Amino acid sequence: MPDDAIATALEAPAAATSLTRKPEVMVAGPAERAEPTGQPVFSLNDVTVSYGSYRAVRHVTMDIWPQEITALIGPSGCGKSTLLRCLNRMNDLIPGASVAGHIDFTGSDLYGAKVDVMDLRRHIGMVFQRPNPFPKSIYDNVAFAPKMNGARRADLPDIVERSLRRTALWDEVKDKLKQSAFSLSGGQQQRLCIARAIAVEPSVILMDEPCSALDPIATIRIEELMTELKNTYTIVIVTHNMQQAGRVSDRTAFLTAEVDEDGTRYGVLVEYDATGKIFTNPSDRRTDDYVTGRFG
Ligand code: ADP
Asked: Cα–Cα distance between 90 and 265 in angstroms, integer?
């Protein structure tokens, strides 16, 4: 290699980035993402979520866009799961929980008096931290919700196969559909739970730390699956794993905990932007400290 080529190669990494520090997280997307088009799926306006008199997350305003993966990151206790649960009204199930402010879902008030919450959760599915299949067969896990929603019995095999194919599980389970879901590995169980969620054709999938109980290989498979699924669904994920947020998400919301004059810790949204921007060139010092590991 000629000397000038070597010199260029040696300089290239520095020339390629104007960052003053090395990014800690590999990000899949560009630092600057094109502005979203179309209508937001969710519009949160000054949302405060309380448990009794404790205002756990305060004054959150953000839009969540279709066919994207939006990650909620931040230190433990800053209200990521609380905020996620608002999006399909799971907090309704917690005694004393209340939501102030306004959340629109595809242009309608999510907390409107006429909303049928069961129907809403059909449109907005949820996947939890630990795989939680029903104590039923693999087939029945996926067929259960469509059956409850009135799908014809004759259509169920197709629905089950389609859902299991979409979650890349079909080839692994097609010969043992009648076996208990508990016979599957943890990673397979989590993909089964995702198949169960999409069997009713939701438009949104909420995921609350879906890989925290999984090994690295199973984690990568779920991440690949999420990237595949976002072509069809809007995904919102809570993750404590910044590398994961960097790898899979299009947009990232960073929340942190602040302390009010009474000494009460509460969550706030610090910054919400394209994932590449959050991890390489955030606007707020608190985000920078968090993503570079100086805090949390
Ligand atoms: P994160 O997901 O960021 O770890 P959470 O949403 O779980 O944070 O919690 C935010 C705050 O709300 C914490 O102070 C937590 O203790 C409190 N909290 C969460 N769930 C409940 C609940 N069911 N009842 C009362 N407080 C809760």
From this structure: 22
Domain of 266, in residue numbers: 51-134+187-291
For a pLDDT cut of 70, what percent of the chain falls above it?
88
Q: Which of 51, 94, 129, 266 to mutate to test the pocket of ligand 1 (most atoms within 8 A of CB)?
A: 51
Q: Examine residue 203 and state whether it is found in any structural domain, yes or no.
A: yes
The string of pLDDT tens digits covering residues 69-109 is 999 999 999 999 999 999 999 999 999 999 999 999 999 99
Number of domains in the chain: 1
Atom 20 of ligand 1 has which residue's CA nearest to it?
A: 82
Question: Could you read off the pLDDT of 169-204 as tens digits, one per residue?
Answer: 999 999 999 999 999 999 999 999 999 999 999 999
Nearest CA among 82, 79, 71, 68 for reference residue 40: 68
Rounded Cα–Cα distance for residues 222 and 241 (Å): 14
Please give the number of the atom of ligand 1 that sits closest to the Cα of 238.
2
In a domain, 26, yes or no: no
Q: What's the pLDDT score for residue 34?
A: 58
Burial class of residue 261, CB neighbours in 10 A (0-12, 13-18, 19+): exposed
Give domain status of residue 209, yes or no. yes
End-to-end CA distance of the chain: 45
212: domain CATH number is: 3.40.50.300
Residue 126, in any domain of the structure: yes
